[in-house]
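Entry 0007
Protein: C-type cytochrome biogenesis protein CcsB
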Amino acid sequence: MSNAAWETLSNQAVAAAGLAYFIALLVHLAEWAALRQVAPREAALVGAAADGGESEVAAAPESDGRRTPGERVAFLGRLGFLVTCIAAGAHLVALVGRGMAADPNRVPWGNMYEFTTTGTFVVAVMYLALYRKFRLDWLAPLVVGFVLTTLMIAVIWLHEPVQPLREALNSYWLVIHVVAAIIATGAFTLGGMASLVYLLKARAGDSAKATQGWMARVPDLVSLDKIAYRVHAFAFPVWTFAVLITGPIWAHEAWSRYWNWDPKEVWAFITWVVYAGYLHARATAGWKGRNAAILALIGLATLWFNFIGINYFSTTSQHSYAIEGPVKAGVSRLPAG
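Output (structure tokens):
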């Protein structure tokens, strides 16, 4: 295949992935709507059926042969998960095609469009990988909606034609540094979503909203807090490796300095400090629940501002090339991620 054919395939695969994510979102929203017809006691059992298990709800057919409300919810959950898997497969094809379209072939992390499409792919894959382990059926619409929205933003506003890597990016450190940063970003995003749901469920308290519909399927506050903590505990050392180890080494290779007080470097360190505080507070002071969830969301805000905001608002960052177009002569710049 020619480079142009690979690029066309990548663009078509992104469109197919977006369509599949949209269908998955509609299916999961229909699943949430169907949960309103399920009794509070039964709602928690439906999730097991959606994960491929059996539940009392799914095992009790109606007398006229139609699906019970519980069976409909379980069916929609399985369908949404399947369509999300298909979307992630198309998403992967888009990334592979993007890299193969370059001459020479390269990893698809050369500009903000490519970073964003890769980052959303990692969020989707991590969700799918952890779906059964943590019973994440309650998180499905949030994850799919986030991936779809971010992917649309990338296609509409960030898309650029495939180009060879710029000289400053043509390094094996691109793979090491960016892979770690994107994996950590995906995990922090999932952990932030769990923290957000924790706050929503805590606010509902013992009211009727907490025992009806979608909220009835959400795990109890202790389990939610534990899920968020485990995901953040995984992401933090990966982020540390990306920000405090591989990033400075690559900076020294490109600029002959380990630290340049670049805005993106500073914000990456701020993100590291916030998440370090989150984990330290939980481990030493027993700072759990609402306060920990708020701190996790602050960390997520700094993370995504660093990922996208710096590229729009900073005129001095040497990582901002992806939004500014051609690099100014004589300035070596590292990737926007």
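Curator remark: The chain has two domains: 1-55+66-163, 166-326. The longest helix spans residues 221-255.
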